[in-house]
């Protein structure tokens, strides 16, 4: 995954964050854990 910083980079990051948030809302956290791993 290449980190390219330029016009629209922040927008893309926000879009991906929204996608992860929606996926997390769709999935139910098992055993009180988040459906995705954090670095």
In the predicted model, the low-confidence regions spanning at least 5 consecutive residues are none
What Rg do the Cα atoms give?
A: 13 Å
- H/E series: H
Q: Main sheet, how many strands, which sense, barrel?
A: none
User: Strand-residue fraction?
Assistant: under 5%
Work out the number of β strands.
Answer: 0
Shape: elongated
| Number of helical elements | 1
Helix content: 40-55%
Task: Report the span from N to C terminus.
Answer: 14 Å
- What is the mean predicted local confidence, pLDDT? 75
Structural summary, described in words:
With 39 residues, this protein is mainly alpha-helical. 46% of the residues lie in helices and 0% in strands. The chain contains 1 helix and no strands. It has one helix spanning 9-26. It is elongated, with a radius of gyration of 13 Å. The two termini are 14 Å apart.
Tags for this entry?
mainly alpha; 46% helix
Summarize the structure.
This protein has 39 residues and is an all-alpha fold. The protein is built from one helix and no strands.
List the helices and strands and how they pair.
Blueprint: H1 9-26
